[in-house]
Amino acid sequence: MSRLGPIVTLTAGAVLAVGLGVASITATPAADNTVATANETANETPNEAPEETPEATNTAADPNPSETPTFEESTPAAPRKADYAGRVKGNGGLIAISLRDGKAVGYFCDGKTEAWFKGDASSADLELEGFGGAKVTAELGGGKAEGQVAVGGKKWSFVAPTAVKPSGLYRASAIVRGARVRAGWIVLKRPQGGFTQVGTAFLNDKQVPTPELNGDQPTSPVTVDGTTVTPEDVDGFIEEMQ
Amino acid sequence: MTAIHQRPSARGTASLLVPLLVGGLIMLALGVYGRVHPPTGFAVGIAGFSAALPMKVWLTTGATVLAVVQVVTALSMWGKLGVDIPAGVHRWSGRLAFLLTIPVAFHCLYALGLQYDVPRVMIHSLLGCFFYGVFTAKMLSLRKENTPGWTFPVLGGLAFTALVGLWLTSSFWFFTTIGFKV
What we know:
The complex is a heterodimer of chains A (242) and B (182). In chain A, 17% of the residues lie in helices and 40% in strands. Chain A is of the alpha+beta class and 242 residues long. Chain A has an eight-stranded antiparallel β-barrel with strand order 1-2-3-4-5-6-7-8. In chain A, strands 9-10-11-12 form a four-stranded antiparallel sheet, with no helix packed on it. The longest helix of chain A has 23 residues, at 5-27. The model of chain A is unreliable at 30-74 (pLDDT under 50). In chain B, α5 (119-142) packs antiparallel against α6 (151-177). The N and C termini of chain B lie far apart (60 Å). Chains A and B meet through α1 and β9 of A and α3, α4 and α5 of B.
């Protein structure tokens, strides 16, 4: 008995891990397959010429037309995982939207004004709420998010193509000696090389100069008002946003 | 005299060969999987928490508390405390601690993968693989006879140290950067 004990322990752990694996695999695919096929055929005409070459392959979905399950719902489901980033027309700001497992976060920033948004990503019609009436509505499909952002009583439209790392949304937050440091960035890789980025940084809700992220390695530590913080990508911070 | 002491020790070290080898392979396998498998950003976990991170944070904290129980009960087994704690306490607290870590490690490896870009995350990734390797080696060597006297203190100590390191680089970080939440 006691000789077998350790083996039983290890086996129990392995069985639990396998069980979680099976459960995770069966729990995920529902949202995945519907997305790309339904959307990408619908509006494939590129009416916009975004700065970034639109990625034909959506990061989230591997289109698998042969086995697309037809669900009863008419609105296509949102991708389980997707990242979009692009310019906001007419105000020089950037916007980024990321989806993870039914949750969506958005960030708008023009270097002075910023707004975080969050909401559910249950369908391809996104509606994200921000602080103080700020709002993002967007339609996902065809490798882009297209919609409108309302901040501070004004409204702009945007088209944000799928973003592939290092492009995308980054956030840093830390509490150092009782002071709360937070910062957000959007990084956009330029097709001709280099990066466009905007961001804001706050120390105890007071805006401070924003450090520039290393475009190739946006998660390298940076210094905000003398405090070293480590920017995180969406996978790193989305849990903290709730 | 010396010969009598030498021989069992030499034989004992050899008996550790397989456990250490298997432990090493586990370490390597977890690391390779974490690197090769594309992170899904999603994994099934334990219900009752607001999100995956709080779940992991609290399960890890639970496992770390049980790991302290492990050290105390181990000291008692070796007669270092002067108090006799039944061996079952050591076994079952260890089992429970190990099982608590599984959903956490599963989420780490399946949903996030092995990452190197931040020191905290890198240390956490490597310690995680190391922990399961050492733990496996410890479990397997429990079944061997004639293991050298240092086997369990060293392997158990390494597992404990790794787990505390894992807690510091995850739960402690979470509590200090994000706060307490369930």
